[in-house]
Design brief:
Shape: rod-shaped
Largest sheet: none
Radius of gyration: 35 Å
Helix content: over 70%
Distance between the termini: 109 Å
Strand content: under 5%
Length: 87
């Protein structure tokens, strides 16, 4: 009888661990499913976000370049000066 009474708590412990494992499995699968949905949404929006960022960046670069006048003559003179320096 002492053997039976000692094994009953062990079996209950094992059954509790099995149940806990099943619950953890369900919880993890649910979280993974949720994570997969979020990844799909991010992937779907990715091209939009990249295009929006590119548009903002191009607008900012254009804005910065508006204030800067590039003198074509100055560029040509610098180019000629570099060639002359080589001779």
């Amino acid at each position: 009888m002492t053997t039976i009474s000692k094994s009953a708590p062990c079996e209950k412990f094992v059954q509790t661990r099995i149940l806990e494992g099943r619950n953890l499995e369900k919880d993890l699968i649910g979280k993974l499913d949720s994570l997969e949905e979020k990844v799909l949404r991010v992937e779907a929006r990715s091209p939009e976000v990249v295009n929006a960022y590119r548009t903002k960046l191009e607008a900012k670069v254009s804005e910065l370049l508006e204030d800067t006048q590039i003198d074509d003559n100055r560029i040509a003179i610098n180019g000629i000066a570099q060639v002359v320096d080589k001779f």
